[in-house]
């Protein structure tokens, strides 16, 4: 149907609520309701308010079902989506219009409905909230308030369309919608258990007695004052005026954003110069305060409107977008503090602008309320997040006595340092899996999918939480013979994919693995029974992580393997190079012992140069796990550098007792550079450890964790510098500057004429190691024109039959877990079968998982981190949770192993929010099986999906694989997969309320 949503009739909404609750005890996908206690009641605008929180004017207050879901989860103050003279098809909104994966951006503004439609939605919601309050025991029928929002100029507000809206929201009894809804309820009284005829007849028709004025950027103060005066004097409404962060001035906003890591957000001074100025705002607000007081009405400001910024990286299909969420909060709360001080707390402040679970209690405690939220509800958990917020605000009856300037000032001062609002040092990793979402059975654990060895993470998390460490070790060791190493220094791509990232922090999967290793290793090792090794022999050249893993998988599956290592001990780079402050030798030795537990043989102090010699010894197969052993070289115009791996090996061998001077420069920006700079800092006699890189920290290739540890250790970062020469104890560098972003979103660098000198007794180059090309060529193994070995990607076998390459020697320096992945691929090619099995992580009681959804919970002790795991392979539903309109439904389909996501076309406005949070590289509103309201809507879409032609027989018109087919229940001889047939049949039989 395109990007236009269709409001549901009142009768369908009632039917939906009753039927869904009857089946699942949920309402519009919200599992846990908030039940208000009257002891926490407040008063505002002369009306009761059970808590001072709710959804902001935006996507969560546009349709009736959005408002109902919000109320059910805990909201009691509703700022209805703004109406203006431009509406419906006449309002241009680029789609998708929301991007909320971190800080939030949008390019939509007022309601996309026609104003009369919006009015009807709000009246339907008003009546339904009264009904479900009583029917479900959620609180008093008068415990919530609607606040209308209008814009954007006086002429538009006085227009017949908007004027009628305002009057009807003030008094709705004569509207057709109000009368129809009341009559419907009276005619269907038998549907309710707790609602009486008197309850229905007593639903008040005075929907709103307050308004929030939203004006366009650039609206002059005289116009704002005229509108507010009209709303107060002519309409008799308690009035809030939305203020913009531009009141703070360009310089303050720019510096704040830069200092908090949002330097990439682009905005000019245009809006700051064109918008309402602070010196004009103060006398205007004072005048309006006096006018409202004279009229016995309340007046205040709403902080803040969203913040206009430039589209630079194709974030949204527009030239300008509006910033909100975590990055807006420091600006919003600073403006609140400034106005609180200016008015000595006497100006009432309503707040939005980045409020969430972390800060809302402090905001309210400062006397700033009501508070409305939006960005937090756009993230996984969705409306369910409101329950935790509502419970946090329970503090007994509170009278408004003013805003506390001191508390507000402290909030503003703290905001710029608060990790919940600062931008991460590095760009966020890609959270999506590189594959498309399937039409059915799409629930997966992104952590497992993101792990190169597909470790059964959710299974060992459950066992760890139960204290079953030996059993957890069995699960881990099935695919991972290096639990101590990977439990300590793994790059943890699994944690980058964890859905908890959208709540607060990922589950500390790596830390749990280490706990399991420490708690279960000894008992597990005693249980290992090495069997007889039979079959052809394999030589594993190299005793690092890749070699250890290869020997482990072979011997664990009954084939003999011999590790041949040129040094005197096993462990490779982890053992000989990575500093002891990162991982102790005892941990590495335990992993080596586990890798050898099934009978692998070892030859130390043996260097292999000739593969033919190994074959003559009787080795049928050879796995080369030699690492990227060729040192990387950085040549300066003058002076010499030391190789980072050579330095780290010496550092470890001498325990840091090296003579490298007082001032040492490390060149590079990767993980090895961070290790090197941290080791330098610990080296005897060193006073300064400098790290030089040609870009800024944000664009360094090192993991964020590695970078932060270097900063904590006191490494001094010298950004935007390119080394030239080392002379007389000084390193000369050219100063670089960042250029504009390219098509990929990455900023390039441009050389300047400026140079700087850094004191440098020693310069260490951490510029990457290279694969041993010459070794390959000398043994008749073909390489690419870039010197990389050519292999069969499915087996990692080289051009030399029976010879495989794994680990860093394959494509260059990689991670330990990637080395294990390679080792298993090669081992399975030799074994001719799978070397490990998967564990079932199906949970019988899904309620325990749903109880975690929408609940923010900080990282705990590793031993109980399983309580934070969201169990995504059993319940994902991100797309269902983050959809404001509830257009993605999770349905229970008999005969299928998990809930199925069905996209409902008529409820969707293609905001695109579900795309941001789907773990697949997909957009559910485009890529999931779609229910259409009619054939015309289906024609107007390319989605795979169906329209129901006859509900009783489940006769459907279906688009599948681009073909239009017809089907009805009972037809088994069909091109349509059985799972999709079950979905359509169940929608018709069990979820017919969706059909309308």
Write the layout of secondary structure elements.
Blueprint: H1 10-24, E1 42-44, E2 47-49, E3 53-55, H2 64-73, E4 77-79, E5 98-99, E6 104-106, H3 115-135, E7 145-150, H4 154-158, H5 160-170, H6 176-187, H7 197-201, E8 210-213, H8 221-233, E9 238-243, H9 250-259, H10 270-274, H11 278-294, E10 299-303, E11 307-310, E12 320-324, H12 329-342, E13 348-351, H13 360-365, E14 371-373, H14 385-392, H15 405-415, H16 446-450, H17 457-465, H18 469-479, H19 483-489, H20 493-497, H21 509-527, E15 537-541, H22 545-556, E16 561-564, H23 572-576, H24 585-595, E17 601-603, H25 611-616, E18 619-624, E19 642-643, H26 644-654, E20 663-667, H27 671-681, E21 688-692, H28 704-712, E22 716-718, E23 721-727, E24 730-741, E25 747-759, E26 762-765, H29 773-778, E27 803-805, H30 808-811, H31 816-831, H32 847-850, H33 878-882, E28 888-891, E29 900-904, H34 913-917, H35 924-927, E30 930-932, H36 935-939, E31 945-950, E32 955-960, E33 963-967, H37 978-990
Parallel strand pairs: 3-14, 4-7, 7-8, 8-9, 9-10, 10-13, 15-16, 15-18, 16-17, 18-27, 19-26, 20-21, 20-26, 21-22, 29-30, 30-31
Antiparallel strand pairs: 1-2, 5-6, 6-12, 11-12, 23-24, 24-25, 28-29, 31-32, 32-33
